[in-house]
Amino acid sequence: MSAAVESHQLTKNYKLYPGPRALFRELFLNRPSHTVLTALNDVSFSVEKGEAFGVIGDNGAGKSTLLKILTGTAFPTSGEIRVGGTVTALLELGAGFHPEFTGRKNIYFNGAMMGLAREEVRQREQAIIDFSELGSQIDQPVRTYSSGMYLRLGFSVATGFDSEILIIDEALAVGDQHFQKKCTDRVIDFKRSGGTILFCSHNLYQVRTLCSRALWLDKGKVMALGKADRVVDQYNAFVREGEAEAKTVGQSRSSSICWIENVALEGLETTATEIPCGADLEVTVKAVFGKEFRGTPGIAIAVVRNDGIVVYTTATTMEGVKLEQLDEQSYLARLLFPEVQLLPGDYYFNVATTDQDNLQAYDTRERMAPFSIRSDRQEFGICRLLHEWTHSP
């Protein structure tokens, strides 16, 4: 299988000038007056023909710059990128429309810009109009369209002509729920027909579902490249760690009455936290309940998937379990999940000290004892449920 897109050490720098005088000084007086913004820094990857490839990252990560270079509207400072096939880009939908032209004339106008003969556009004209659901409005100037109508026509035109590579930048949230479903179905049909997709989105569920591999960019640099679910998990972990650090700056403990002292996985090396689906999973939590604490000491434990979905939560005080007392103030909770049926992904524990009423979390710790579940099976969801396929007699 040959590559549809190849990027080798791609770098893009922008010169930033504080004003026109600075540009004048640099051009005519030979005085450097600019700063350099590196939008892409040594980015290398390849996309195979027929593959759906995701691009993720925060705002300002370099995603849009990469897509502009792919579509030929920007050029690299160094490195090279090769695109093997005709490209359709869903970047700014309707960006090439003339406001005084009708929707129908804009279909022909965009077809001509793509190098298509008028007869070729005519053969696709009605299918594009039908997909957009604009009806008689297609013969009205696009300046009279609502934003939703404008975007529907933009998506219909962008996907209405044959291409080998489809580049999508946050363009599946078009119109109402009904039309969004049509857009998604069209993209999936394109993928099934063997087309190549580069999908840039903040909707990580769509990236995980649609794409087989993904690229994570941060400030122009490649942070991760590989299977989409793993890259999305790594990105989610990075985001949540940043949020947790921001919350805990300047804080030592959230409670002086009782606090979490340690959280650990039992029976695992600290560097080997990959667990096969169906293996035993045991976590221990050590907590200290000071002399000022009144009530029954309790520890709550939640299993959380890396995208923030809480899989399961319980507490010793909810189940009437007494903590193991180590000394006058130290207690230990051991929670065993025999033959855990979590599906592949990255997980962690949120833990808290609580009491018999389970209404207050005195001290909480998030993203503790992270671990990964691995399996060779093809399954989707959070956990494996006992099941069997049955047939009528």
Compact overview of the structure:
This protein has 393 residues and is an alpha/beta fold. It contains eight helices and 18 strands.
Write the layout of secondary structure elements.
Elements: E1 3-16, H1 20-28, E2 35-48, E3 52-56, H2 63-71, E4 78-83, E5 87-90, H3 103-113, H4 118-132, H5 147-159, E6 165-169, H6 177-192, E7 196-200, H7 204-210, E8 213-218, E9 221-227, H8 228-248, E10 258-265, E11 274-276, E12 281-289, E13 298-305, E14 310-315, E15 324-325, E16 330-337, E17 345-354, E18 363-374
Helix pairs in contact: 3-4, 4-5
Number of domains: 2
- Content-based structural category: alpha/beta
> How many strands, what sense, and barrel or not for the largest sheet?
6 strands, mixed
- Name the shape in a single word: globular
Helix content: 25-40%
User: What is the CATH architecture assignment of the largest domain?
Assistant: 3-Layer(aba) Sandwich
CATH fold title of the largest domain? Rossmann fold
Query: N-to-C SSE series?
Result: EHEEHEEHHHEHEHEEHEEEEEEEEE
Count of helix runs: 8
Explain this structure.
This protein folds into two domains: about 5-235, P-loop containing nucleotide triphosphate hydrolases (Rossmann fold, 3-Layer(aba) Sandwich); about 260-375, Immunoglobulin-like, CATH 2.60.40. It is built from eight helices and 18 strands. The strands form four sheets. Strands 5-6-7-3-8-9 form a six-stranded mixed sheet, with helices on both faces. The chain has a five-stranded mixed sheet with strand order 11-18-17-13-14, with helices on one face. Strands 10-12-16-15 form a four-stranded antiparallel sheet, with no helix packed on it. With about 400 residues, the chain is α/β, with parallel strands linked by helices. The chain is about 25% helix and about 35% strand. The chain has helices at about 20-30, 65-70, 105-115, 120-130, 145-160, 175-190, 205-210, 230-250; strands at about 5-15, 35-50, 50-55, 80-85, 85-90, 165-170, 195-200, 215-220, 220-225, 260-265, 275, 280-290, 300-305, 310-315, 325, 330-335, 345-355, 365-375.
